[in-house]
Design goal:
UDP-galactose 4-epimerase, domain 1, 2 domains, 14 strands
Length: 332
């Protein structure tokens, strides 16, 4: 069975592609490489193209039975500063992807959604009955696409899974792939950099939130736990055809300061930091109630914060070693 992983040369998509292959699926990757990396798609059939390009999409879409869609911009702060970019890609171009899938007869669609669709929830942990009221353009763009999937399911019989992630983090245990963004804005890679010789201090955005230590609380989920959930969601769709939305998280929240402590324990180094003003659109706490994913998919996160930081640190060390090797090569 063939699956198209759109955005499969990016962070989460590359991990999902490998887990799909381990489960016996044939995997095609489609990515424009604007934020992805060709080497993260090594060993897979890669088509380089944009999701807005129907002519490029259609030939590979006709070869698959399901789509996993990861090709979205995903920085909350940037979405506030440049909403046009987010609605253009995450809504307009994504609708072209959905239309192409529908026209090519694809019946199963797994969507990389986000807890940002909930906005600032009235209670935590957050379950799927929480009203979807995003407070930033990123969350709004993801919610729009959830609405589109719901409409296409009713009108055209395309079944879907909207997987609302909390904070993806960590790296594959092999150390071969991991988180690689430019610029990097995610907490754990930045905290690891701050704990590395010559690294810049970590900027903590706000220390006056209504949380125990004043810093934001988030639910961090290992990227391979997340990837496993995608495979289980796909199997569920194919088995009974019923569409659904579920939260994917651990059910445990950690503050920024607690993440820093975990980084210092794993690396054995102090992480320098400085406090900066709050970022627009950042809720104080986002923690999942993932019981529906457990009941519906038989899924539960198996890796804790220590595992997440340890695998991310292994990945970072390997990247540092590769850079050192490249620098040592003779220059022509």
């Amino acid at each position: 069975m063939a699956i198209l992983v759109v955005g499969g040369a990016g962070y989460i998509g590359s991990h999902a592609a490998r887990v799909l292959r381990r489960h016996g699926y044939e995997v095609f990757i489609y990515d424009n490489l604007s934020t992805g990396y060709r080497f993260l798609a090594d060993g897979f059939d890669l088509v380089v193209g944009d999701i807005a390009d129907s002519d490029r999409l259609a030939p590979v879409m006709r070869r698959v039975e399901a789509v996993m869609h990861f090709a979205a911009f995903a920085y909350v702060g940037e979405s506030v500063e440049n909403p046009r970019k987010y609605f253009q890609n995450n809504v307009n171009a994504a609708l072209n992807l959905l239309n192409t899938a529908q026209e090519c007869g694809v019946r199963h669609f797994v969507f990389s959604s986000t807890c940002a669709v909930y906005g600032v929830p009235a209670k935590v942990p957050i379950d799927e009955a929480t009203p979807r009221e995003p407070v930033n353009p990123y969350g709004a763009s993801k919610l729009f696409f959830e609405y589109a999937l719901e409409a296409y399911s009713r009108a055209y019989g395309m079944n879907y899974a909207s997987l609302r992630y909390f904070n993806a983090a960590g790296a594959d245990e092999s150390g071969d792939i991991g988180e690689l963004h430019n610029p990097e804005t995610h907490l754990i890679p930045l905290a690891l950099a701050a704990a590395t010789e010559g690294g810049l201090p970590l900027r903590i955005f706000g220390n006056d939130y209504p949380t125990p230590d004043g810093t934001c609380i988030r639910d961090y989920i290992h990227v391979n736990d997340l990837a496993e959930a995608h495979v289980l969601a796909l199997k569920k769709l194919m088995a009974d055809g019923d569409s659904f939305a579920v939260n994917l998280g651990t059910g445990t929240g950690y503050s920024v300061r607690e993440v820093m402590m975990a980084v210092e324990q794993v690396t054995g180094n102090k992480a320098a930091y400085e406090v900066a003003p709050r970022r627009a659109g950042d809720p104080p706490a986002l923690v999942a109630d993932a019981s529906r994913a457990r009941d519906l998919l038989g899924w539960k996160a198996t890796r804790n914060l220590q595992n997440i930081v340890a695998t991310a640190w292994n990945w970072k060390q390997r990247q540092i070693a590769k850079q050192a090797e490249a620098a040592a090569l003779p220059k022509n």
